[in-house]
């Protein structure tokens, strides 16, 4: 992988104490993380549907639905990579230095333009072997680039073992660009797509059971049904030793004039290398409850960032099988993007320890029936949902 | 007739809110109240015909020095009906004003939507008053003042 997004500084986030107190991995944590990954990405720690902005994307052009003939996957807007060829990427809200308990998942919807009329307005197919590469990369524990995991996708009109006529052929590897990868590589189990539409490109970063990173790259149809999975793993990618947290999501190459994408998200706790700066003037209040396994998850939240200095409190109580009370001891970041906010901090769990937490809330109007609350913690705990009672107010 | 009764209750509630005894001292700095907790009622607590056992609360509010407030108060009251059926009463409130007494007790109030959990439509515009020390919480909803519920689990922070 020759091309990388600019080197990330190795400055480490200040929230270290929680790491020393991590409990041993428990099956329910992994199961919860897996369920979280499967469930709606709208509860992701980072989520961008381009409805209001392009927060934390570079090179993404926000466009209304039907632009170049493409209906947004959800909502009224999506984004396009307008042939910027290597300059379109996200940091998923920020690079992370610690591999989270239970792993993490990144996902993005990409529109595969196969049938006329094409997005360039013509009826002539794109040239045979027109490509894009979509990578989700991982860091070292020092916040430096470790490895890319890449969907290699190409549009073809020729005829060979992968099929014939207009189609996409997709495979997965640790390399990108024409010099490094080939979607039709027979050793990479190429998968052929004939039907035009939205497809989900998902990366699931997980422990292979022996402390080594394994990444499942899954291509899903618009409904979320898996079509093909490639698993990449290298024995030198040892979690906690050579492997840290998330790095970027990146269209490493894009040879299409317009490549439409939507709903980019990361699900899983992020221990940021650099704490995101707070949004000056942000003010959030919330209280209510979501459903958790066998009970309610009640929460109270106040957070603001006068002049950019974050303050506030979080209290959360899981009344279900994972019974716990979370009480913040420090708020380290309050950021607002559109109608959603992210609150980072440190908390005790059942009056003990010091764990990092990441809360994301969305204010979807009054009353709060459609508002959402999610919490991820450095010990692997996750809970999320649409409010069953209460309200979120982003003032 | 029902409408008149509802209006009377509403008026009584508003009067109760307005005639709440004046706290002697307001805080000189704003405070936040943040809580997610379970609290239990002593025997005899009731709202209408529902005997209350406990409440689960989630609240977050900023109370400014001038007595204005912004925030959310959400509580589920759990109890039993006269027929012994379990019942949950849901109150979702918007905090509008509040203050801190010299002893540290925080008072706040606002307007809520109350769902009685009996299949009848939720009632909106219901005034509520809350006072809390962090260890207990007292709630007056509409014209009914409930006895203080003692914290059983969770946490209420006043900062």
Main pleated sheet of chain B: 8 strands, antiparallel, barrel
Provide the β-strand percentage band of chain A: over 45%
What's the helical proportion of residues of chain A?
Answer: under 10%
Structural class of chain A: mainly beta
Count every beta strand of chain A, where a strand is a DSSP E run of 2 or more residues.
26
Rg of chain A, alpha carbons: 21 Å
Distance between the termini of chain A: 44 Å
Major sheet details of chain A:
9 strands, antiparallel
Count of distinct strands of chain B: 10
- Helix count of chain A? 2
Strand order of the largest sheet of chain A: 25-24-23-22-21-20-19-18-26
Q: What is the strand arrangement across the widest sheet of chain B?
A: 1-3-4-5-6-7-8-10
Low-confidence stretches of chain A: 1-40
Secondary-structure element string of chain B: HEEEEEEEEEE
Structural domains of chain A: how many: 2
Shape descriptor of chain B: globular
Low-confidence stretches of chain B: 15-27
Assembly annotation: heterodimer
